[in-house]
Amino acid sequence: MAQLKVPDQDYFHPGHLGCPGCGAAIAIKFALKALGKNIVMVIPASCASIIVGPYPHSAVDVPVLHTAFATAGAAASGVRAALDMKGDTETTVVSWAGDGGTFDIGFQSLSGAVERNEDCIFVCYDNEAYMNTGVQRSSSTPFGVRTTTTPGQDWKRTRKKNIMETMAAHRIPYAATASIAFPEDLIAKFEKAKEKRGGSRFIHIFASCATGWGAPSDASVKIARLAVQTNIFPLYEIEDGNRYILNYKGECRVEEYLQTQGRFQHLGTEDISRIQGMVSEDWSTLLRKAGEAPP
Amino acid sequence: MKQVAEGSQAVSEAVRLAKVQVIAAYPITPQTHIVENLSEHCASGALNARFICVESEHSAMAAIIGAASSGVRTFTASSSHGLAYMHELLHWASGARLPIVMADVNRALGPGWNIWLDQTDSLSQRDTGWIQLYCEDSQDVLDTTLIAYRLAESVNLPVMIVLDAFFLSHTYEPVDIPDQKQVDAFLPPLSPRFQLDPANPACFNQFVAPQAYMEMRYNIQTAMQQVPESFRQIARDFKSIFGRHPHLAEDIQCDDAEIVFVTAGTTVSTCRQAVDRLRRAGEKAGLLKLKMFRPFPVDFLRQILNGQQKIAVVDRNCSFGASGIFAQELRAALYNAQAPPGIFGYIAGLGGRDVTPETIEDIYWQTKNEDRPQTENKWIGLDQETLKSWRN
After folding, report:
1. CA distance B217 to B211
2. Which residues of B touch A114 (CB under 8 A)?
């Protein structure tokens, strides 16, 4: 991985409303370092809509349009159209949605926007459940997880939706995964996305949630790092929907990741080996798509 | 220049003349001609605007909100289910104080599927904080659309232009389409007080605690209360440039009337004809055309209708469990009048069923034959055979 410097300049400031150890807040901090001041952010209902501050405060140095839950893709499209009509092609429009606002209620609007190849960066910061409303499952919640709507023995039996593949299926110019535990990689991807003007760019950020995942607040970065090291959340890019570029190869077993969080603690050995099987299968598929040798 | 145009074209010509910059829309019958015309205008360069072909009405309004928040003039159009699907964003647009203009083609809601005239779609959006202006004919549509932009931009509230499905949207009649110079003199370019701007970053529509939310709502109500007076001023300007004088409500032969019809949309034209016939037969019929439904012009209505004997409200809609919505609003508006009239509510012409001058005359005689209203509303022209067959 290229060793890049993390810019000193911050556009996201202390006093924000994130929980201690909030992965989403870390994601905003690094993304804004890469994007700089000349952006308009569009934020649908999400933890982020709280984190960036209540009226009359703001924790960010950029303009923010807060919008309804399902509408990030559409609202960003409208901002882009207006800026273009005003002759402003320099400002980058960045939608910043959680997994609910991307995978679920916001999916139609996002699909519409990227099918039109809107000239925006669409970001999903993914904490794998509805955290702002108190940890309810989303279609991004992985197999095996307990949430407040998948409690007890009804823990989630279906797999996490592969949002990157849905974006690839729209053949957008650029899609990438990123992690709060790999800030230089994350910054490089945002800088790359910002340079690729003229079409839709999608960045899927793994943003751990200590509060919702049953983990100590000082473990957020460690957990995010393990997600990459176990290939549970691989770092990769997809150009034009078909050129896959792998950024990291993990070698750890999933147990190392699962044991760090309360949300997996009820799982037995069989469940864990099933999860390992799923992760290994997905990893092999990804390697094949990236033209790499199988493990 | 006079041109033969359908109601849909009256909308799209007004939008072209208003130099709208961003349009987002999703097709639904019978709104389609409006957005097709505008697509043509954008493609040909007659209108320098971006047309966003969104994947739903919900996204249409969201995109327009994004564009309007960025300080450009915007437009969308919808109907029926499309408008219902937008509902959440209608609240968002008014709460964000955006001067958006949209056209709603009044169409029935399913089930059963029905594409024809019914006012329930727009009227059930009455609490969303949108100004609502109902149109009688194509000229009214064009004029009202131009006025809507001035009005929206003067009070920072969104405006819904409402026109009847097919009877207006798809009916051709002569329309005076003004030239660009006249419209430019009437409608200056948008100069928003606030817009998304990286040089002056601010958060729009953010989280707000109880200590300020109520004041924000109060400001919307205050702005709404200014609308009738703003409309009057703008309409006077309109008259000085275009020679026509649209009114928020229009009273026709009300002074000595024994029965005054109250209605909106194309039914007003039908009532005009019925009133003429009744007058010729020596009957003292009058008519009040309602253009503005939100805000409900209570003061004006009290002034005209106080002391009248009877009013007959023709509603092409129904709030189930209550009554026709115009009748309901009039009862509330006139309750505190000094001498409120008897308010006779009639529900007619739902789902595109014809309301003819004969229907209106029938309503007149039914009203004349009763001293006081016996029920909140009467349903006109129900087919008893059909109802009976369903009971068996």
Report:
1. 12
2. none
